Amino acid sequence: MSETKPALYTSLSPALLNLYDISSSIVVIIDVLRATSTIATALCNGAKEIIPVDSVNECIRIGRQIEAITAGERDGKVAEGLQYGNSPFEYPSSFIAGKTLVLTTTNGTKLLHMALNNGAHEIITGSFANIDAVCEYLLQKNKPVLLACAAWKDRVNIEDTLFAGAVISKLKQQFSINCDASQMALNMFDDAAKDLFEFMKAKQASHYLRLSSFGLEKDIKHCLTFNTAPVLPLYKQGKLIRG
Amino acid sequence: MSETKPALYTSLSPALLNLYDISSSIVVIIDVLRATSTIATALCNGAKEIIPVDSVNECIRIGRQIEAITAGERDGKVAEGLQYGNSPFEYPSSFIAGKTLVLTTTNGTKLLHMALNNGAHEIITGSFANIDAVCEYLLQKNKPVLLACAAWKDRVNIEDTLFAGAVISKLKQQFSINCDASQMALNMFDDAAKDLFEFMKAKQASHYLRLSSFGLEKDIKHCLTFNTAPVLPLYKQGKLIRG
Question: For the domain bounded by B8-234, which CATH number is listed?
């Protein structure tokens, strides 16, 4: 008995999100450097919940209101007025366990709100830090999937595309993929899989250059490592919680 | 003496075009299957000029007004009301020499008008059919370049990205490339260069599937062949002419 496989698409930039009908899809928000890696890490290390917001002011306002940790970046640096940044290393369990984090980032949290406004059936976040958890969830749900790359100010980037390719590499037999962006992502991941960091460096990826100029090579390496934070961040009623 | 190299960027979809300041750039319109391949072929075979228009009605109106050949497609087929389609094989010199062609296509001619409206410094069209002519022109001009892929209804496609990669492969030493989309295009072209048609087939590129379902594999093969129409289509005062 043959069953129809659910469709899988990849959106390489937030500016392309509205090309896809996501009303019955699970949307995977991908912002490898570094929002979704940090989200997985903080939840894995015991954060109670993460409230993604799309502006610094909103972050400060909510942080005060509920006495939560405010964190976020603009252009790769801690945003003015916020307490913490967007590095997974800032959120060890000794610091984050049991706490609520209010987070805003240049690209990732904005994209999450776009997906919400576009009527996504369900929203989760993905990164190499929790790739297996993401893939297991998508397999188990067996629904249409949109892999949504946060990119950089709408410009396509290598690392989010690589993560989309990595997911496709694991799920391609179980989903119907008629999507050139997905094929391109998979092809690039296959080229890069041996050493993602070296690939990013060799290709002079723009985010590699940006973060390494801030001395954050360690962050890049960590965010390109598989399954360091094996949790599923699930968006429910305004919050990301462990799924 | 070191000189600053001009910048080169790649826009993978018309929906991303407005991320780039093109006021001092040469914009290369890329619609490999099949608009820009057909444009190069028709000009190479002696067409006097090609008037790209963005709607079928406008195509019919201008065609009547100047007694020109009207041609174009919507969704890969000859558009209703027009005389000819979007296949390079429809324009041998025995037919097209000395004539004016008014052309509208799903993606390519629309993108050309977007680039015009966005204030492009100069517009040319590129395809594998005239890749060397394009590269020689860009080298000679030594100005910033935007490789603008027409894609398919704003969804990124493999063939236009491959062409961008092919151009970058030839020009990368002479331009400054800090653009992930360009690196991704180049990486994919390097994988595909041995046999572009087999690559498109193996990746089940959406346009490969669409055109081959219409029996147009011959068109695909032709449009993926280098330098079959060595001319430079240059946009001037509403017309594409031999540069």
Answer: 3.90.1560.10
